[in-house]
Amino acid sequence: MKRNIALILALSVLLTGVFTACKKKEETGKTEKESVTAETAGGLNDSDTEIDFVEVDVTDENGETVTDENGKAKKEEVPVVITRNKKTGKLEAHRIDNEGNTKKETVPYKDPDDDNKGNKEKTTKKKKTTKPTKPTSMKTTGGEKPTQPESSTKQTSGVPTTNSTGTPVSFNDTDVQRVKKILEVPYLYKASYENAQGVPISIATHAALWMAEKDGLQPSTFASGTIVLGLFKYFGQTVVNFKSKCNDAGNSNINYNASNGTFVVSDFEVNDHSVTINKIEDLGNNYFKVTGNVSGGGKSQVIAILQKNKLDLSLGFSVKALKWS
Asked: Average of pLDDT values for 117-124?
């Protein structure tokens, strides 16, 4: 889906309100404690909870639909939280308001697993056989063609776990290098997690620094939305409570200043481990399971669940789950 700079900037503003202020904690100099069940962000921690974009009518301050010169409703893409209704089993899309909170009202959203889900209007026409939704091809800047194979296996529910199995596939060298860089974020091996648990704050601090450096930023003081959006793009979901818990992670290279709502980045981090990818599996719905050997950090293997990235095409993928051993 095509996105412009205005949409990305708007999203950074929307997401800044999701989090609360936090108390500063000085670095102790001790190594971070490794844990497979590390402290995770609370809130949007359901495996069926995702954030996506949908197209809606533009409305004015009175809630009236805005039309163009031809009388057609103007459209805009807005971020929404996608959840599965536990009673009906249907996916629902809830808009995120200007404070970063989820609204109660739903907006139309089509469930790719069922032609009748997602608030689709009822029809008296003969029901057609359900067909898998065709994945959206990725386009990158600089004339680069899509490199990831389109997912061919249909995944029916939620985000796959690291125990999932799929169809073996191959990535070309460009995508292999992209995945390597994503998994070689310094200290990323400090925690394992499944998507249902939420993203551990400890590794989120390292991902935040890596994303800032990747985007060409220099150590400085940043508006909270800049850091939050970087995390949103890396993980493909909100790292809930990041501002309120980032300092407690004990990473002295990044701290949140509650008095003015900014992040202070004092330094970036040096790569301390390497990953050699040896197996990639297609899990359906553009999810992929990547297995690789690890050198450094006291680890020997990593299993990652990745999804094609909707917000950062140069990144290529977002990280949905990690298992280090």
From this structure: 39
